[in-house]
Amino acid sequence: MFEVDRDGGVAVLRVAHGKVNAVDLELAEGLTGAIRDLHASDDIEAVVLTGAGRAFSAGVDLFRILDGGSSYADRFLPALVDLFDAFFGFEKPLVTAVNGAAVAGGCILACCGDRRLIADGARIGAPELRVGVPFPVSPLEILRFACGRHVEEVVYSGRLYQGAEAVAVGLAHQAVAPDELLETAVAVAVDLAAVAAEPFRLAKRQLRRPTIERIAADAAGNDPTATVIWGSPETAAIVRAYLDRTVGKG
Q: How many Å from the N-terminal Cα to the C-terminal Cα in the chain?
């Protein structure tokens, strides 16, 4: 499901779940527990999040959504939001190293990083609306935090960006050769961890507080509706048509 390696005071958290690291209920819960454990660990100074294999994360496992229907959506959406909140609220340095496709939920996870690196040739973007599913509050606000004035372009277009284009819209800070990605990410994490821990934590809290406050204010009014839409037969039909077009499965 995931692997944790150590490089000095840096933990490398590597998603390793199926062919493309798609997020299902079990992965969401597992990663949330992992990042909370790393937050509590006194000997971990920073974290690098990356993917195993050819993907960072291809996003939500849509086949599980189709198979599980509303009962699965009722459990999954809150777990997905908890996952994003745990990574966005992680108070130590977090570097995300996008080694391959970071799509939809994978894109949101990447955007939780204090520094976001993307391998040349990797693609990142948030095509939720093009797929036909709504954003809960948390992922949309995390995108707003990362992309700033480019957030409407990213959300409405649903485009997948590479290299300099991803940097230009805020989805990444730096494009890196694939064989240098992890080494560079660890070096960036070490550099961030060189800042005294408490001043870093306080600065990160201040920088992210407006986003966290908007999430807290709006989630109760928005997320139950999003959950109902995710689990509806109408959404299932739209998702099935999308999968038919993109991967030839129904």
A: 25
